[in-house]
C-alpha cells in the first residue's frame, strides 16, 4: 500500500479499499457497504499476513525457550509492544497485553481490589479504597467501563457516582465539578462515546480528577483507531483500547498505565511468566508489564496489532480523522433530513466522531437493521452495551452507522438512500 495524498479523497480511499479483501463481498446480492467499524473493523492484508507469517515461521513460546525460534518469537513480540506503545505516545514498559479492552478495565479494577485487601505492600497503599470512597463514571459509559467499577464498589464499600449528560449526550462539566471531590478516588470515562459520538473534554476532566488526587482511567476504544492519541500528553493514569476496532484481530487489546502505577499495582492473574522467585509458601513478581501477563500470551495477535498500527501510521491518523469527520458530517446532515429520525448526540458535527446512532419513529432498530442488511448494508442495532445512556434518552435500542478509513461518500449515500425507504416499507405513515 502506498498513500501519498494529503487528504483521503474517494480516489485515495478506493486504493485503500483494495487492501481489505472482505470489501469485495456480496451480501444478499448487493455489494457490501460496511458501516459497523464501531463494533469491529475489517482487516487489511498486511495484518492478515503478519499473523500468518508468525504461525508459519516463528511459532514458539516467548520469554521462555532458549532456542532460536523462541528468541525470534520473543523479539517479534516485544517489537510489537514497542510499536504499539509508540503509536499511542508511551513507553514500551507501560503497555500490558490483554485480550481486549474489557479485560484491561477489569485488570485495573481487580488489581485495585487486591490492593484494598492488603496485597501489594506499601507501594500499593495509594490504591486502597475505603467504605464511602467514590468511583466516578459517566452516564455515557459502555458497560465494560461501568460494571467492573460497580463490582469493585461492591467488594470495597466504595460508591459509584455518575456524571450526567445533557440532551445532546455531552458531559455536564458543571455537574462533574460538583461530583468530583475529596472522596473521589477514581474517575473513569470514555474518550469518545460509542453511541452519541461525543468527544469528551479530557483535559477538563483530568484536571478535576487530579486536583482531587484521583486516578483517571480512559476508555480509548473509540478514539485510538480514529484520531491521533498521545496518552502521555493527555496525562491520564490508565487507558485501554482494543485491537479488533483498529484493523487488528480479535483477542488482543492493551492497557496503558503510568510506569510507577503499574509497578505499584498488585497482580490480577497469577501463574507462570510473571514471577521471579516461587516457594511453596509465597511468590515474588516481575515488574510491569510482565507481572500482568501470566501464562501463554497472545503472540500472533500482538504482532498483528503492531502491523495494524503500522498501517494506520502510514495512512496518517490526522488524515483518517479528517476523512471520518467529513463522513460523519455527511451522516448527520443526511439523517436530519429524513422524516422520523431522532439523532443521538451533538448536532454539531465538529463535536463528534464519524459515527451516528439514531431512532427511527415507528420502526424498531432491529427491523431497521434487517431492512438495511437485505440491501447489503451492515450497521449495528441494539443498546450498544450502553443501557443507562439509552435509558437517559427514553429508548431501549438504536441503529448505529459507523465509518472508518475505508468508507467512501458513496457508502454513506447508499445508507441514507436506503434508510429513506424504511418507514414506507413497514407501513409507518409520516
From TrEMBL:
Its EC number is 2.8.1.7. InterPro entries: Aminotrans_V_dom, Aminotrans_V_PyrdxlP_BS, Cys_dSase_SufS, PyrdxlP-dep_Trfase, PyrdxlP-dep_Trfase_major, PyrdxlP-dep_Trfase_small. Residues 33-415 form the Aminotransferase class V domain. GO terms for biological process: cysteine metabolic process. Keywords: Pyridoxal phosphate, Transferase. GO terms for molecular function: cysteine desulfurase activity; pyridoxal phosphate binding. Catalyzes the removal of elemental sulfur and selenium atoms from L-cysteine, L-cystine, L-selenocysteine, and L-selenocystine to produce L-alanine. Belongs to the class-V pyridoxal-phosphate-dependent aminotransferase family. Csd subfamily. This is Cysteine desulfurase. It comes from Paramicrobacterium agarici.
Amino acid at each position: 500500500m502506498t498513500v501519498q495524498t494529503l487528504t483521503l479523497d474517494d480516489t485515495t480511499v478506493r486504493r485503500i479499499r483494495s487492501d481489505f479483501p472482505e470489501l469485495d463481498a456480496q451480501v444478499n446480492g448487493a455489494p457490501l457497504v460496511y458501516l459497523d467499524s464501531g463494533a469491529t473493523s475489517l482487516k487489511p492484508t498486511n495484518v492478515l499476513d503478519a499473523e500468518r507469517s508468525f504461525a508459519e515461521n516463528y511459532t514458539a513460546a516467548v520469554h521462555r525457550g532458549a532456542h532460536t525460534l523462541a528468541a525470534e518469537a520473543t523479539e517479534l513480540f516485544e517489537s510489537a509492544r514497542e510499536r504499539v506503545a509508540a503509536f499511542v505516545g508511551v513507553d514500551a514498559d507501560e503497555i500490558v497485553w490483554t485480550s481486549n479492552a474489557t479485560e484491561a478495565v477489569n485488570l485495573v479494577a481487580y488489581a485495585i481490589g487486591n490492593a484494598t485487601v492488603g496485597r501489594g505492600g506499601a507501594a500499593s497503599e495509594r490504591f486502597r479504597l475505603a467504605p464511602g470512597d467514590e468511583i466516578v463514571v459517566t452516564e455515557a459509559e459502555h458497560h465494560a467501563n461501568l460494571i467492573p467499577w460497580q463490582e469493585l464498589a461492591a467488594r470495597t464499600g466504595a460508591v459509584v457516582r455518575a456524571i450526567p449528560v445533557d440532551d445532546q449526550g455531552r458531559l455536564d462539566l458543571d455537574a462533574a465539578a460538583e461530583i468530583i471531590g475529596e472522596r473521589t478516588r477514581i474517575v473513569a470515562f470514555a474518550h469518545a462515546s460509542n453511541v452519541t459520538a461525543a468527544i469528551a473534554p479530557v483535559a477538563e476532566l483530568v484536571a478535576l480528577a487530579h486536583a482531587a488526587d484521583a486516578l483517571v482511567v480512559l476508555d480509548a476504544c473509540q478514539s485510538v483507531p480514529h484520531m491521533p492519541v498521545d496518552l502521555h500528553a493527555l496525562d491520564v493514569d490508565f487507558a485501554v483500547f482494543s485491537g479488533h476496532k483498529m484493523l487488528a484481530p480479535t483477542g488482543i487489546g492493551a492497557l496503558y498505565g503510568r510506569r510507577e502505577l503499574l509497578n505499584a499495582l498488585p497482580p490480577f492473574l497469577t501463574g507462570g511468566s510473571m514471577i521471579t522467585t516461587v516457594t511453596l509458601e509465597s511468590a515474588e513478581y516481575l515488574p510491569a508489564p510482565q507481572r500482568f501477563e501470566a501464562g501463554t500470551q497472545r503472540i500472533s495477535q500482538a504482532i498483528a496489532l503492531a502491523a495494524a498500527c503500522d498501517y494506520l501510521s502510514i495512512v496518517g491518523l490526522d488524515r483518517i480523522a479528517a476523512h471520518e469527520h467529513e463522513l460523519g458530517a455527511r451522516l448527520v446532515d443526511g439523517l436530519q433530513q429524513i422524516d422520523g429520525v431522532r439523532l443521538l448526540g451533538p448536532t454539531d458535527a465538529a463535536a463528534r466522531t464519524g459515527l451516528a446512532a439514531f431512532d427511527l419513529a415507528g420502526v424498531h432498530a432491529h427491523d431497521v437493521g434487517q431492512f438495511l442488511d437485505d440491501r447489503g448494508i451492515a450497521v449495528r442495532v441494539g443498546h450498544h452495551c450502553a443501557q443507562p445512556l439509552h435509558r437517559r434518552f427514553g429508548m431501549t435500542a438504536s441503529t448505529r452507522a459507523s465509518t472508518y478509513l475505508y468508507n467512501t461518500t458513496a457508502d454513506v449515500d447508499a445508507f441514507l438512500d436506503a434508510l429513506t425507504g424504511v418507514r414506507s416499507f413497514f407501513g409507518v405513515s409520516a
